[in-house]
Specification:
single chain; alpha/beta; two-stranded antiparallel sheet; 324 residues; 10 strands; Aminopeptidase
């Protein structure tokens, strides 16, 4: 099946910092930055006669009786509810993280992250098209690091995409790496951490929908038997430490990821697993792992669109017994 490749002059970079802007991740303070005005001093109470006090109480009671109770407005339907969509017209952009020139992280066996990202992204788009999402687009960028980030976003915005999903594979900070030799070459690994992670930005113009889609992906990954990468909650991660928004689904907040905060549509980033973990790296290259991850993403999208789940498949052996 032919894939729609969207070449965009691009970039990559190292790990998650590649997508980070200059602004800090500190949440904006709520409300106005204008300092609160000091409370005004109450007027000094005057001495009241018993008759005056009684009259004052009667007036206050009458005023209270005249006040009509406020009726709370019914809140608008939550964006977190399933939205109906036509799969044939729904436009999801599947962004291949990094580029051939700027390949992202190296795996424990020195395979560029870009290779993993491209392979998995192609499979996701193929499955989406097979399942009726005819407008699914594979976004591949070219060139060096940061200049491509704006072009990725521009491509998705110009397509008037309904959803944006960036595909990556995880690593760890250099300080957590260990050395080993693979095929006669000095290499690096970290077997301490593994698992997937899903990232969203509260700066996205439709954060609620972004969060909902991310949660659906995470929950489907868990149903496929995968654990989430909980190391981002640990102090040892330093500047890479992130706020965990949903422990069950493995969804993290990362406000300053450019591809998440500046797209006009809901957006999420999936770190499909750790390629710096030697065991998980081998899984990442297996057809079984690909199939499970693709199933998790496509099932999440169908649920996001309010589509009915696919009917359970009857194993061939069981069907043969039923026929007899």
């Amino acid at each position: 099946m032919a894939l729609a490749l969207l070449p965009v002059e691009a970039s990559r970079a190292g790990w998650l910092d590649f997508f980070k802007g200059k602004k800090s991740d500190a949440p904006k303070s709520a409300g106005s930055s204008k300092p609160a005005e000091p409370a005004k001093h109450a007027a000094r109470a005057k001495h009241l006669t018993p008759k005056d006090a009684a009259a004052s109480l009667q007036a206050a009671a009458a005023k209270l009786r005249s006040v009509k109770p406020e009726v709370a407005e019914e809140p608008p339907p939550s964006k977190l509810m399933a939205r109906k969509c036509d799969p044939g017209k729904f436009r999801i952009v599947v962004d291949v993280g990094h580029t051939a020139e700027s390949e992202g992280a190296l795996s424990a066996r020195n395979v560029p992250e870009f290779n993993f990202n491209l392979n998995l992204s192609k499979r996701i788009v193929e499955r989406l098209k097979a399942d009726g999402f005819a407008q699914a687009k594979l976004l591949v960028t070219e060139g060096k690091a940061r200049p491509s980030l704006g072009r990725r976003v521009a491509a998705a915005n110009n397509l008037h995409a309904d959803l944006f999903l960036s595909i990556h594979h995880d690593s760890v900070p250099d300080k957590l790496m260990e050395e080993w030799e693979y095929e006669g070459k000095k290499s690096h690994f970290s077997d301490r951490f593994s698992g997937y992670g899903v990232f969203v930005s509260k700066s996205n113009p439709d954060f609620e929908s972004s969060f909902r889609f991310a949660r659906l992906i995470g929950k489907q990954m868990r149903l496929q038997g995968f654990k989430f990468a909980n190391q981002y909650t640990l102090p040892i991660m330093g500047k890479y430490r992130r706020e965990l928004l949903d422990r069950e689904a493995g969804v993290y907040r990362y406000d300053e990821l450019i591809v998440l905060k500046t797209t006009n549509m809901p957006a999420a980033l999936l770190e499909a697993g750790s390629i710096i973990n030697r065991d998980e790296e081998l899984e990442m290259a297996s057809a079984e792992r690909h199939d499970k991850t693709v199933t998790a993403v496509t099932t999440a999208l169908k649920e996001y669109c309010g589509l009915p789940p696919a009917p359970p498949q009857t194993p061939p052996d069981a069907q043969a017994k039923m026929d007899h």
